[in-house]
Amino acid sequence: MLDPRKLLLLRELARRGTITAVAEAVTFTPSAVSQQLSALEREAGVPLLERTGRTVTLTPAGLLLVEHAQAVLEQLERASAALAAARGGPSGPLRIGAFPTATRVLLPPALARLSGAYPGLEPMVAEIDPADVSAALRAGELDVALVHEYDFVPPVTDASIETEPLFAEPMYLTDRARVPDARDDPWILSKPGTLCHTMAIRACQAAGFEPRVRHHIDDFDTVLAFAAAGQGVALVPRLAALAPPAGVALTRLPLSRRTHAAFRRGYGDHPAVRAAVAAFHTAATTLPL
């Protein structure tokens, strides 16, 4: 019988590429991960890994097992959700990940609704960049998360994660009427590696230029404060620009940011996750979009 916990390690190795990265994700030592994967090979009866020095790659049999591992792990998530539903209504800890704008605007009314409807539920919120959500969900660090995607940045698909659309919001440009008009301006972008940074770069490229980046700032309130101080132009979503500082003009663009709820595939019927997503939907209907 193949051990699902070892299958999870094999799946993470297929995604992360190194045993060290897998160990960091699951808070094991690299030695422990290697031992578990070696044990899985013995259980499978065929080589799953090919080791060349410090490099480890999956054999064709290993890749085949990863495909089946995803189906097994999804069924276990469904079983866990079904057992939780059999025990009763939503209760216990619920680990929620969210990006800062959603944490500030969407989560307070959603959490108030959850607390009123399910006093036994204990929501626990952690801010996280959407780019890191899939790994955190797969590792079991989060139960549900709010993620976003932008125009110009195709979503990264993950077979182990499901998403449910919540709402879309327009993007705004500070102090210019069109992106091409900001060709010669300094720009305020978020840090490289974030979806917002990639979106801004590609929006400028689509307008025919590379932005001259002066500042890297993730917090949109600070971005707008810098724009008000004449430090550059920026692209900001509607929910980050509800109360812009004096002196900042905002022009709505034909671009959008879309927010989704994300959870492990098969886990969406868990009572706590289902209650949270319903609360997100209700809170989204009150947003000034």
UniProtKB/TrEMBL annotation:
Pfam families: HTH_1 (PF00126), LysR_substrate (PF03466). Belongs to the LysR transcriptional regulatory family. Keywords: DNA-binding, Transcription, Transcription regulation. Coiled coil: none annotated. The keyword Transcription applies. Gene3D superfamilies: Periplasmic binding protein-like II, Winged helix-like DNA-binding domain superfamily/Winged helix DNA-binding domain. This is LysR family transcriptional regulator. Residues 2-59 form the HTH lysR-type domain.
